[in-house]
Amino acid sequence: MTHLEARGMVKAYGRTPALRGVTLDVAEGEIVAVTGPSGCGKSTLLHCLAGILRPDAGQVTWRGERIDTWSEAARSRLRRTEFGVLFQFGQLVAELTAAENVALPLLLAGTGRREARAAALTWLERLGVAEVADVRPGEMSGGQQQRCATARALVTEPRVLFADEPTGALDTLTGEQVLTQLVRLARDQHTTVVLITHEPRIAAYADREVTLRDGAVDHSGLGLHAPVPGGPR
C-alpha cells in the first residue's frame, strides 16, 4: 500500500534547480534508499517529503492528503507525531542530556515529563546507550551521539522515518552498527524509512534503491539492487 507520494516535484534555490520533476511512491513499511552523487538533490527531496520545505511545483501526498499545501505549523505537528527526522550530525541540543534530548519530541507534543523520560530511557536502552542518559552530547562519542539522535527520531514511534546521511559522520564499523540497529527497530515497529545516502554499502540495507542524477530520478537501472540473501536488506 502506497502511503507517501511525490508527483512532479520541482524545487530550485534561486536560479539553481535542485529537483526536476521527481515522482516517487513509498509503500507502508518499506525501506527506500535514495542515492546519487553530491549535489543531485537527495537532501532536498527528503526535506520536501518530510514537509521541511515546500516544493515550487508538484505535490507531496501523505495518506491521501496534500501536505505541501499545509501551513508550516501543521507540517511541524506532522513531524512531531507521524514523521521522524534523523540528520547526519544528529543535531542534539548541546545543553540537554541524552535523556532530555530524546524526551524533547514527546514533551513538545504534550506528554508529561515523567512519562517522557521513561520513554526516553527505554529507547536509549534499545539502542545500547542507556549509560549516557544523563550525559551531555559534548561528552559522548560520535557513535553515542548518533544513537541518541536515532532514539529521539524513533521515540514518538513515527509512521515514517526520514534519515539524511545518518552514518556519514561515523567510521565504517560504528556507522554499520548504528544503521543495523535503526533498520531492526524500524522493521520491528513497521516504520517506513526514506534513507538518503551516497554509499552503496548503506543502500544495501534497504528494500529498494532510487537513484537521483541532476535532480531527476535515474531510470537507467544503474545502481538498482535486490537484497542479498543472508546479508543487509
TrEMBL record:
Q: Which UniProt keywords apply?
A: ATP-binding, Nucleotide-binding, Transport
Pfam families linked to this entry: ABC_tran
InterPro entries membership? AAA+_ATPase, ABC_transporter-like_ATP-bd, ABC_transpr_LolD-like, MacB-like_ATP-bd, P-loop_NTPase
Among the GO molecular function terms of this UniProt record, one is: ATP hydrolysis activity
Recorded GO cellular component terms are: plasma membrane
- Coiled coil residues, start to end: none
Provide the ABC transporter domain boundaries.
Answer: 4-232
Protein name according to UniProt: Putative ABC transport system ATP-binding protein
> What species does this protein belong to?
Micromonospora narathiwatensis
